[in-house]
């Protein structure tokens, strides 16, 4: 039997299944792998940013269809509100993920010597 489901619907179902798979990987991921996954979720080009854009687009399309009477107006409002909420969550998450993405400075050891201070009188701007 031929599947007559439109391609965008099949694509959305496939994406939902992949998100479930990612969820299972995240549950079992060690901390460093989890940080990498969070990094992919975050950002304008990450999963949250793209899902926010999808909801914003859906809101725009739903409002246009509502103007023609094919969808209820509440649909566009709900999608717009969801897009705004997800964007706010994205900003909150970004505050916590950014420090984890930055390279860590190497730990100092006891054999590391502090920098030598400049000789007195050689500092610029200290003349009287």
Number of DSSP-assigned strands? 0
Q: What value does the Rg take, in angstroms?
A: 26 Å
Overall average pLDDT: 82
Strand content: under 5%
Distance between the termini: 93 Å
Helix percentage range: 55-70%
Main sheet summary: none
Which segments are poorly predicted (pLDDT under 50) over 5 or more consecutive residues? 105-110
The H-and-E topology, N to C, reads as: HHHH
Shape: flat
SS-based class = mainly alpha
Total of helices: 4
What this model shows, in words?
- The protein has 128 residues and is mainly alpha-helical.
- The protein has a domain of 71 residues.
- 65% of the residues lie in helices and 0% in strands.
- It is built from 4 helices and no strands.
- The chain starts with 6 loop residues before the first helix and ends in a 27-residue tail after the last helix.
- 8% of the residues are buried.
Topology (SSEs and partners):
Layout: H1 7-28, H2 31-41, H3 47-67, H4 73-101
Features:
128 residues, mainly alpha
Structure in a nutshell:
With 128 residues, the protein is mainly α.
């Amino acid at each position: 039997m031929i599947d007559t489901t439109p391609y965008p619907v099949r694509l959305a179902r496939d994406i939902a299944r992949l998100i479930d798979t990612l969820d299972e990987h995240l549950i079992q991921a060690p901390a460093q792998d989890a940080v990498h996954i969070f990094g992919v979720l975050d950002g304008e080009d990450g999963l949250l940013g793209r899902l926010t854009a999808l909801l914003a687009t859906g809101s725009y399309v739903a409002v246009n269809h509502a103007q023609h009477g094919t969808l209820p107006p509440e649909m566009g409002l709900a999608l717009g509100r969801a897009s705004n909420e997800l964007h706010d969550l994205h900003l909150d998450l970004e505050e916590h993920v950014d420090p984890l993405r930055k390279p860590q400075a190497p730990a100092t050891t006891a054999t590391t010597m502090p920098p030598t201070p400049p000789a007195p009188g050689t500092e610029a701007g200290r003349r009287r």
